[in-house]
Structure formats: C-alpha cells, structure tokens
Write a structure and sequence with these properties.
Elements: H1 4-18, E1 23-29, H2 36-39, E2 44-51, H3 54-62, E3 66-69, E4 84-90, H4 99-109, E5 110-119, H5 126-134
Parallel strand pairs: 1-2, 1-4, 2-3, 4-5
C-alpha cells in the first residue's frame, strides 16, 4: 500500500528504481525515510541508507534499510572501497557544499562497473525560470520549508542539463 509520502516523491524514486538491476548491495545517499525500498523489493538483496535525520533513519530502518547517520559535509562514506553494485543519490547533491567531492566518494564505494543514479532539480525547467525571473527568488524544490527550501539544508547549487561529472573529472 502506498502512503502519502510515496505519492509525493514517487515519480523520481520510481523512475530511479526502474533503472536498478538485480544486485546484492545498493546505497541510497540521503535515503530519508527509506521510501526507495518500496520500489526495490525483490531487486536488491540489501539496501543501505545514509542520512542526517535520525527520525527518518528510524523509519527507514523499520522498512528494512541498513541505516547510518552521516553528515556528508564532514564525513566520508563509512563503507569500504568497491562495496556497492548501485548507488542512488536523489535530490541530494544540490545541498552539498562540495558536490564533486561527494561524487568522488561515491565512485570510491562503487564496484568496478557499478552504477550511480543521481537526480537534481533542473534550474532550466520553465516553472523554475518563471519563479526566478518574474518572482525574483529561487524556486522551491521541496515541500519542507524549514529545512530544504529556506532552512539549513537549502539549495546551494542549481544544475542544468549538461555533462557535469564525467569519469575523467573524477
């Protein structure tokens, strides 16, 4: 049964889950309450999740996610090199002071031939441009006005469609 949160975030999460192949281990960077686990049932043997919200991690753990509380601004990923088959990083990178460093760290924990699925709001999306140009402020990309849009985890970067990270830059 889908709950409200899944319906609100389901599109990006569901799309990402469709690209995950059967595997042993997946890391969900910024896992929140573990909503991705609903879409990966039967595909992934073990789902690991990191986040900085203790409340969300408790929910994710109840959903079967192996969780760790991590502050991505201060800590490296607490996993050995080449540990994961897949890593997802859904709407997290734009909140990180060093996005390139995060991608390098993700690359470190991915197995050779592993896959990274990353998503971020597109600043060139027409609704975002209208907000920026005609309303004079950056667009809202989250329903959480106290943390991710206006709070301590506000957007630090806006990305646009372009090959930003390539293997040669990592």
């Amino acid at each position: 049964m889908r709950d409200y949160y899944i319906l609100k975030t389901g599109e990006r999460v569901e799309v990402a889950a469709r690209h995950v192949k059967k595997c042993n281990r997946l890391l969900d960077v910024g896992c929140g309450d573990g909503v991705l686990s609903f879409f990966l049932k039967g595909k992934v043997l073990r789902i690991y999740g990191i986040d900085k919200s203790e409340g969300d991690l408790k929910i994710a753990k109840k959903r079967g996610v192996f969780t760790k509380k991590i502050d991505l601004e201060r800590e490296n990923l607490p996993y050995q090199d080449s540990f994961f088959d897949f890593v997802t990083c859904l709407d997290v990178i734009e909140h990180i002071k060093d996005p390139h460093g995060l991608v390098k760290e993700i690359y470190r924990v991915l197995k050779n031939g592993g896959r990274l699925i990353i998503s971020t709001p597109n600043i060139k999306f027409s609704d975002h441009l209208v907000t920026l140009i005609f309303r004079g402020h950056f667009p809202t990309t989250s329903e959480d006005k106290t943390a991710y849009d206006g709070g301590p985890y506000s957007l630090l970067y806006f990305f646009r469609p372009k090959k930003y990270f390539t293997e040669s830059r990592i």
